[in-house]
Every structure is written in structure tokens, then in C-alpha cells.
Design goal:
The complex is a heterodimer. Chain A contains 6 helices and no strands. Chain A is an all-alpha fold. Classes of the chains: A mainly alpha, B mainly alpha. The interface between A and B is large, with 44 and 52 residues.
């Protein structure tokens, strides 16, 4: 081969090597600080987006009896007999049963009438959120 | 001719070759295009979908679904969009695919029932490139040169806000919280922000601030408002010590009015124990927090002794409207010695240990200091929030935020921040760290947490230039200012009813009771009694109505006006001739429905709703029936559930509740409870 060919081959090899090098090197990934701030808050609460929507509704509609953390220790709990249950003690929850209790009231599943029906006051979507949050309550923190 | 001959003789063999080569090249390109089109991503995706379909559906359903295929698109001329997402997302509106894997899964939630795809498409909510038909080009993930890749779920509420312009859209808590923070921080005082038109944010007017505050407090406040008061709504303007010095001199010289009214007060006789008792009785904490507990409508009082001068405080408490005409604080009816005691109590109880004696007011004579202070005051936009008669409000100092979400992200400054260039990130950094974007910003910082800054950015990211068709926009109804006249109007102004209550949506949000139909809700005699001595209807409510020390005539005027004007025609016509059987049935229902879980009756029952033993003397029957039938209509978000009562059941409960707590005389008059 001529000198010129060697030259061309060398240039090609260097070019190829540098391309590969660039691809495999650590990429300088620009961040998304706004998204990260929201995700950090989500991680802290250990809830998904849908569950955190449910928690917001829970705090508004339910916590006064069931307690802020669903331990059955809301400020109105002492007035109730039977008292609201400690929902954190349960490990598995049947979503259909939770939905029924929320929408039709505890009387609809043969319990006391103290937990009222919310099916006409809340939208289907809101009840979905609440069910998702109720299912997350027994979950351990990672 | 020579040229023509040359061409005819020499060119043909070469031209044949060129044509042959070109023909071959076209053939190759053409077959590649055909092959590429045939093997397009969406075709293989649709083939996968058909295989999945056979496992999800029965033959009958399959026969019905046959024929779905090919390029599918939704054309929305009103929104100027063409969305081909359903080419691959084939199960999106089919509940049979609820548990199917991506991209065939049905849309979660009930969103498509409220936002059908033939009206809303996909990209108005999700962003991304709707016309593309392969995963990468759609920009499911951020792509170079794509301004609006699909929004991740975490920030998708920004797109809710494009149409939902009410302050608190349902099911979008981050957007609602962002908008609340914008209102609370008063961003619209300096920036024009679409959606917040007509809102005002006012700090106190400063015309008499020279009489009001201590110089040491003013210095520390100007340096960092949150240092004195962590919940302060004023931002930190990052002023230099020179600027603080001149601004302080300028402000302390503001003694245009003479608001003081304390010459006759004998401070030696001040009784702080009586002041403490009055402080509790007047329910100051409904609006003012002390030591972290209490309302946020008025200033925090925990260190009020470090801030204000004694004579100013006395004069202000005695007649707030004379000292500061635009204050939301009401004017109580108390005597001078009573106000003296309250003032002495506040200054003694709520001062730091190192607060020294009150220095005499200083008059700054140096014209250069005053001019420099005035210049700082104007340059940093202080008049946007604080009225000062000496200075004309020059309008909004910051740039308009109309269409901010449609700014070209690559033209915005990011300073030294290594971030993806998006309007989201720009707004977020501007709110959180305004000084890192290349040049020193004149915008104050508000010490937001990153999560709060993200929510504000999210709310602002919904402000697009796009003119949506009116049928898509849900606007915030602009409240019409309510300013009644006459004797009633004077009382409303004196007792500042609208600082807490609303009429037609206009007023404060501290109270949960709008006044629009109060005359149909409450009995007139009960109103009079309540205004004279407001008790707690709910056991567990923290913000209670102040004890105004109102005159009996004033209470009667207000109650009469309410009973004649603030009526709801829909509940006024109600047959109140209840039978004993109805009342008995109502009592039965009361127990069956579990009302006692939330309501107290005598000593039994819950703390959530109002105590009911006086209901017959308190509420009007028409209102009880209307409220029980459709509570959410009258008060969205109320904890009173809608039990779906029949008219007869609602009537029975009304009969029972009306029988509670009525005076024997009223009972003797018979069934009519009016």
C-alpha cells in the first residue's frame, strides 16, 4: 500500500475510535429540575400520583374519624361505637369491598351505619383515587 | 450543428449507462420505501394488537371489532390538531383492555368519559407530536428539537390548566396548589398573569409607617422579612445595606397623617390580666396566629412588641379604619381603658426578651438619603403592593406572563444551570433561584421549597398563547364587588363582614358560610342572638366569629336585612305543617342513617357537624330539607354526604329536626315552625 493509503486508514481508525469513545463515555445529561422536585416530593410521601390524589381526598373527607394516617384515631373517633378500624394493621385489602364501603356506606356491607355513603357526593374518579390510597395504607416503606 | 452532431455521435452509449444506473437506483429506493412502509412500526404494533385481541375478546366481540386497522387519526380543526395516537393505542377506550400491557391498555380512570377523544384528542392533554406514528418521533421521551415532548404524569396538570381556568380545578391538586401559592404570594402585583385578572394583593399602606414601627424592626424586616416572620408574604428583595439605610430613612419619614389618639390614656393603670382576657374573648386568634397557632388572615402577633409602637397600636385597635382605611380588620365596640389593657398585654406578652425601650420617632433631614430611599422604593416596585400617597403607582413592574408557556425554550436564559431547555425548567429556576439565570434579577425571592416552586411553575406553564375556542374554556367567574349602602352597609363596613364571608363570591374565605341565602337558612331571632354573642355551632371549629360587642339595634338591623334580602326562593316555599308520624319517622331515620356519627345531640354524638339540639330555633325548615337533599349543590366539598333521600324521607328528617329545641311557646303554636 502507498503512504497515502496508510494515511487514509489511520485517519479513518482515529475517527471511528473517537466516535465510539464519545458514545460509550459518560453522557453529560442535562437535568430536569422541576420534574425532579416533584418526584422528590412523591418519593418522600411514598405514594404514587394516583395514591397521593386519594390521600388528599382522604384527609378532607375521612381523616376526621379515621385519623390522618388511617390508624382509626381521628378527633371524632372517640365518639363512635364501633370505633373506626386501624387500617394500617391490614396487609391485603379487597378493592371491591373498599369501593363498596366508600360508595354505599358501611351499612351496605352489614356493619354499623356510622361510615356514610359517598357514592352520590364523590365522582367515580374520586372514589377510584380513594380506593387506591386505601390499598396503599398497609404497604411498608421501602 | 457541430455540437448536435457531436452529441449524437458520442453521447448515446454513456447516456444509456446513466439512464440504466438511475433506473436501478430509483428501483432500489422505491422498493426500500415500499418495504419500509410495509414494515412500519405501527403495522407490527397493530399485528401484535390483533393477536392480543383474540385472547381478550370472545368471537362475537371479535366479529364486531373487525375492520379496525390502518392509520387512525382524530382531526380537531377547532384545536388545530391531528392526533394519530390511536393507530397504536388501539384499546384506549375499550374497558376490555383495562389490564392489557402498553400500548394497548385502556385509558386509566374515568378521564375519557369526561374528555372524549373525538372532542379532545390526545395531545391537548399529553403533548407530544400527534401526527407521528412511531415511538421515537412521537416524542414519548424528550427528543432533540422537539419543543413539546409528551408530559410525564407528574406535570401533566399544567395542561389541565389550559382550559380549566377556575382557581381550583377538581382533581388537579398540584395545579390548584400552584395557583394558591401565586395568589398568596401576590405574583400578579408585579406581573400581568392571565387567569388572575382583577385580583389584588395588598400590603399595608405606608402613609403613617413612621408612627407605626420601630427602626430596628424595619431594618431587619427590609433585610429579610422571613427572618422576623417565617410565614411572611413579602419576598426578600436582597437589598444592600446602603439601600436598606436609605429606604428605612425614607419610610420612617412617612408621617403624612396623624393617626395617634392616645393622649388621654393613663398607661400606669393598664391591667394586662384584663387585656389577656379580652384577647381571648374577642377571638383575635381566629385571624392572628400566636406561637404558631391561629388564623393567617391577619399578621402573626408572636413578636408584635418588637415591631410596633405603643401609641400606634392603641390608636389602631381603637379605630383601625381611621388609621389604615384599607385594613380588613373589623372595628370592635370597646372602651378606651379596655383597648389600653389589650395594648399593654400584647406588648408585654409578645416581645422578645431583648426588646429595649421604645426610641423616639426620628425625623430624617438629609435630602440625599430621602431621595435615594424614594428611588429604591420606586425601582423595586414597592408601590405595586404598598400604597403611599406621596408616590403614584406606576403599574406593574415585571414583564407580562401572557403566553409564557409558549416562549421558545431555546431563546430563554439558563445561566450556568445544566438543564434541559424547556419553559418548565426556565420558569422553575426563575421562581426558585432568580439570580442564577445569567444576570442579577430584581425579582424578590420567596424562600419557596423546590416542590412549591415546581407547583408554581406548573401553574404558570398552563398559560399558553393559544386562543382556544370559547367552548373549551372553563373560566373563573369574576366576582362582582358587593358594596351595600345605608345603615346595613355601614355595619358591614364597620364589622368587616366581607373579610371572612362572601356575597356572590365576593369576599374573604375564612368563614365557611356564604351570606347569599343566610336569611333562608337561619331564623331571624337566632341571627340576632348569634350576632350579639356568637357561640360555637360546631364543637371543633378553630376560626370562630369574633365577639363584636355589637349594639342590640345593630344586630337587629343586620338580622332584618338578612331575613328580607338574602333569601333563596327555591327553599322559601315549604309546607311546614308536619305530622307527628313524620317526626317519628325522622327520628328513626336519624339513627338508621348514622347521623349521630358526626352530629351531637345533647351529650351524645360526633364533633364533625353542627350540634343539633337547638335546630328548631336555629334553622328554617325549608332550608333543612333542601340541604339534606342536595348538600353538594349548596356547598361543594361539604362533609355532609348526599344520602339520596326521597322527598318523603327528607321531609321526615326535617320534621324531626325542626321539633328540636323550639321554645314551648313555639310548640304551642302548632306545626308551623316559622
Amino acid at each position: 500500500m502507498t503512504n497515502r493509503t496508510w494515511h487514509a486508514v489511520a485517519v479513518a481508525v482515529v475517527a471511528l475510535a473517537s466516535t465510539v469513545g464519545c458514545r460509550t463515555g459518560p453522557p453529560s445529561q442535562p437535568g430536569d429540575p422541576m420534574l425532579n422536585a416533584i418526584r422528590a416530593e412523591e418519593r418522600e410521601g411514598n405514594l404514587t400520583y394516583v395514591e397521593s390524589q386519594g390521600r388528599r381526598l382522604f384527609l378532607h373527607y375521612c381523616a376526621t374519624c379515621h385519623g390522618d394516617d388511617a390508624r382509626g384515631d381521628g378527633q371524632n373517633a372517640s365518639n363512635l361505637s364501633p370505633a373506626p378500624p386501624d387500617m394500617t394493621a391490614r396487609t391485603s385489602q379487597d378493592p371491591a369491598l373498599i369501593r363498596r364501603v366508600i360508595a354505599e356506606g358501611s351499612a351496605a356491607v352489614g356493619r354499623s351505619p356510622l361510615s356514610p355513603p359517598w357514592g352520590r357526593s364523590l365522582s367515580q374518579q374520586q372514589i377510584d383515587y380513594l380506593v387506591a390510597y386505601c390499598q396503599s395504607i398497609g404497604r411498608k416503606k421501602p | 450543428m457541430g455540437v448536435a452532431v457531436e452529441v449524437r455521435n458520442t453521447a448515446p452509449p454513456r447516456l444509456h449507462l446513466v439512464f440504466a444506473g438511475l433506473g436501478l437506483a430509483f428501483l432500489v429506493i422505491f422498493s426500500w420505501v415500499l418495504f419500509h412502509e410495509g414494515a412500519a412500526e405501527w403495522r407490527t404494533t397493530q399485528a401484535r394488537f390483533r393477536r392480543l385481541e383474540t385472547t381478550v375478546k370472545n368471537p362475537h366481540q371479535l366479529a364486531q371489532a373487525a375492520g379496525v386497522g390502518g392509520l387512525r387519526q382524530i382531526w380537531l380543526p377547532d384545536l388545530g390538531r391531528v392526533d394519530r395516537c390511536e393507530t397504536c393505542h388501539l384499546g384506549i377506550d375499550d374497558p376490555a383492555f383495562a389490564r392489557a400491557p402498553a400500548p394497548f391498555a385502556a385509558h386509566p380512570g374515568t378521564w375519557l368519559s369526561t374528555h372524549p377523544t373525538d372532542r379532545f384528542g390526545c395531545t391537548p392533554c399529553h403533548d407530544g407530536q400527534g401526527q407521528a406514528t412511531d415511538y421515537a418521533t412521537v416524542a414519548h421521551q424528550p427528543q432533540p428539537f422537539v419543543t413539546r415532548p409528551m408530559r410525564p404524569l407528574e406535570t401533566i396538570e399544567a395542561n389541565c390548566g389550559v382550559c380549566h381556568r377556575a382557581l381550583d380545578p377538581p382533581d388537579a391538586p398540584r395545579l390548584a396548589e400552584g395557583r394558591r401559592l401565586i395568589v398568596e404570594s401576590g405574583c400578579f402585583s408585579c406581573h400581568e398573569i392571565p387567569g388572575f385578572e382583577g385580583m389584588t394583593f395588598r400590603g399595608p399602606s405606608l402613609d403613617s409607617i413612621g408612627y407605626k414601627v420601630r427602626p430596628a424592626w424595619l431594618t431587619s424586616w427590609l433585610k429579610d422579612p422571613k427572618g422576623y416572620l417565617p410565614q411572611s408574604k413579602m419576598g426578600n428583595f436582597r437589598l444592600s445595606s446602603d439601600e436598606i439605610g436609605s429606604l428605612q430613612g425614607f419610610l420612617l419619614s412617612q408621617r403624612a397623617q396623624v393617626p395617634l389618639d392616645s393622649t388621654g390614656v393613663d398607661w400606669k393603670k393598664a391591667d394586662t390580666a384584663n387585656g389577656r382576657a379580652l384577647f381571648g374573648e374577642l377571638r383575635c386568634v381566629s385571624c392572628h396566629a400566636v406561637n404558631g397557632r391561629g388564623g393567617t388572615a391577619g399578621p402573626e402577633l408572636t413578636r408584635i412588641g418588637d415591631k410596633v409602637r405603643r401609641d400606634w397600636l392603641f390608636s389602631y385597635l381603637k379605630d383601625p379604619h381611621r388609621v389604615q382605611a384599607d385594613t380588613p380588620m373589623l372595628q370592635y365596640r370597646l372602651s378606651d381603658p379596655q383597648w389600653r389593657d389589650v395594648t399593654a398585654f400584647l406588648l408585654e406578652q409578645y416581645s422578645s426578651a431583648d426588646t429595649g425601650a421604645e426610641p423616639p420617632p426620628v425625623t430624617y433631614q438629609d435630602a440625599r438619603v430621602l431621595a435615594a430611599g424614594r428611588a429604591v422604593f420606586e425601582r423595586r416596585g414597592c408601590p405595586s403592593c404598598h400604597r403611599l400617597a406621596a408616590i403614584k403607582d406606576a403599574g406593574r413592574i415585571g414583564p407580562s406572563l401572557a403566553g409564557i408557556a409558549d416562549r421558545d425554550p431555546d431563546e430563554l436564559p439558563y445561566g450556568t444551570n445544566v438543564v434541559r431547555h424547556t419553559t418548565d425548567n426556565y420558569i422553575f429556576l426563575k421562581v426558585l433561584l432568580p439570580d442564577t439565570l445569567g444576570q442579577t434579577s430584581t425579582m424578590p425571592t420567596f424562600a419557596f421549597t423546590p416542590a412549591d416552586a415546581a407547583k408554581i411553575a406548573l401553574a404558570l406553564a398552563s398559560i399558553r398563547k393559544t386562543d382556544l375556542p370559547a367552548s373549551y374554556v372553563l373560566r373563573r367567574p369574576a366576582p362582582v364587588p358587593y358594596r351595600p349602602g345605608g345603615k346595613f352597609g355601614e355595619l358591614v363596613a364597620r364589622y368587616r363582614c366581607l373579610s371572612c364571608h362572601t356575597v356572590g363570591g365576593f369576599g374573604g374565605d375564612l368563614s365557611t358560610v356564604p351570606l347569599d341565602r343566610i336569611g333562608s337558612q337561619l331564623q331571624r331571632d337566632y341571627l340576632v342572638k348569634y350576632l350579639l354573642n356568637p357561640g360555637a355551632v360546631r364543637v371543633s371549629v378553630e376560626a370562630r366569629m369574633p365577639v363584636f360587642h355589637m349594639l342590640p339595634d345593630e344586630a337587629k338591623t343586620i338580622a332584618d336585612y338578612f331575613s328580607m334580602v338574602f333569601l333563596d326562593d327555591g327553599v322559601e316555599q315549604y309546607d311546614t305543617r308536619f305530622t307527628a308520624e313524620e317526626a317519628r319517622r325522622g327520628q328513626e331515620l336519624y339513627g338508621q342513617l348514622g347521623c349521630q356519627a358526626c352530629h351531637q345531640l345533647g351529650t351524645k354524638g360526633g364533633y364533625v357537624g353542627p350540634e343539633l339540639s337547638e335546630t328548631g330555633a336555629r334553622l328554617r325548615p325549608g332550608w333543612i330539607a333542601a340541604w339534606l337533599s342536595k348538600p353538594q349543590i349548596y356547598k361543594p366539598g361539604t362533609l355532609q354526604p348526599d344520602y339520596g333521600l326521597s322527598g318523603a324521607d327528607a321531609r321526615a328528617l326535617t320534621a324531626y329536626l325542626t321539633s328540636l329545641g323550639r321554645s314551648p311557646a313555639a310548640k304551642a303554636r302548632g306545626g308551623n315552625a316559622q
